[in-house]
Amino acid sequence: MDSPKKPSSPPGNETAAAGPVPTNVVGLTALFTDPLWRIPVRLSPVEAALLRTEPLRRLHFVAHGGASTVSTLQSYSRLEHTLGVLALVAHFRPEDELLRVVALLHDIGHLPLSHTFEGVAGLDHHAIGVQLVQADPIRPVLEEHGISPEAVATALGGSARSPLTNRSGLLNLDHLDSYVRSGRAAGRLDTDPAALLGRLGLEDTAVSADPETAASLVDLICAEARLHTSWDNVGPASVVRRLARQLLDSTPLAPARLARMTDPQLWTAFDSCAVTQAESTMVRYELHQLKVEAGSAPPDRSGWTFSLRKIYSSAPLVEGQRIEVAAPELAAELNALLALPTTFRVRWS
């Protein structure tokens, strides 16, 4: 009796392996397509090599939304945002090799949970990023491909104006991706990102839009500011900052080591420390018991005071002009953000 035959493979496919998808984030495909902007990016050899280094891979395990990832659905990673910024640079300045590399490396210094405990123990993600660019494993990758680590570090330091680091109060590509990506995650993006992109330009180092598109961007900017000042961000961020300080004060953990943790490693450290374990569990599983009010906590009441470091409100140009001149009503909406509270009293009920 003959044995049953196995299904035959298609001719020439006997040793075929599974191929990577277009959104692969380790440089295995020649073309990376950003899923938000739907921009196809032809990765250069240095870009593919950088995506395989530990500082870039680590960003895949750091939440862009910081501590608010436990209270919202903003669970996308800092690497997803980084690749979005690369896609925008590839769209507007495709031949600018240095700017593309800076786009990939601009966030490598971020702490776990991103901005949540920026400034704790003097930690500054900008300074850390500049240091990482000039050390292993980033420096040898750059030098192998003929790119000066010092030039990248200078660009990251913000001393030179660029579409990523302009400090003029105008909307840059880094913040553009943040606002639009956050808007999609929060369900408040009412425009297709690819269509939105088609209505944007880059004037020198700032994003420019027609009046209607500028109004859409201002809506996203204002919504992001309200998110930052909401219970959803202030509550968990204030707890995690407290936990980080307690962890550093009660264990031998050095601030520099804390800064290079991923989010899962940070939660594990909180759970492994007797001082932080209980509140670490509460902020993840009993967050609804957290109370947040505007203003400082009185000394005779339970709770603590939390202050936001800043509210982002960078404005697009409107048809190449500053928004105050071309669309004063939109400028007034952004100015109104200055009235949002930035100091809060937080307590467990």
UniProtKB/TrEMBL annotation:
Protein name as annotated: HD domain protein
Domain HD/PDEase: from-to ranges: 74-201
Secretion signal span: none
Lineage top rank: taxon: Bacteria
Residue ranges of coiled coil: none
SMART domains assigned: HDc
Pfam entry (one): HD
Region: Disordered, residue numbers: 1-20
